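Minutes, project check-in
Item: structure for the 172-residue chain
Input as provided by the requester:
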Amino acid sequence: MMRFLFVTGLRSEELFALLWEDINFDKKTASINKSIYVRTRSDYEFSDTKNSSSNQVIALDEKTIEELKNRQVEQALIGEMNFIFSFDGLPPSSRTFKTRINNLAKAAGVKPIHLHGLRHSHIAFLIEHNQSIYAISKRAGHSSIKTALDKYGHLYPDANQPLAEEFSKSDI
């Protein structure tokens, strides 16, 4: 689940709402089309995503697809489950994943982060790997590219010099 959250950049309420029917294994995609509001593990309701641009189909890499297939097999051994990240057929508990993050952080000797921190890490990773801020903003489901630039523009601190050097590459 942690890797899935990192490689997709989903909001936790979108992640917890994911059902197996939202995954297309052949096309390697996940349909993000709802959020979940959990009052208690057995009292929950689906709702709209944060904004209309969050309703989207996102591409998944091959490793993620394989991990999802393995997850589906593991769940089948327990029983029928619709929620991808459920351990018992009910919606996943954010507390369960907070405990998991804390345990992983302790084992790694680092400070734990919030689930939403994996969303920020996803975006920072893509920026660091020179992906288009427009494409990143779309994948993150931001309502506008301005949202991405306002939140993540500081990750481009040394962008001025490389821009100037582009002119040296051309005969101008």
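Outcome recorded: Strands lie at 23-24, 29-32, 35-40, 43-47, 56-59.
No further action items on this chain.
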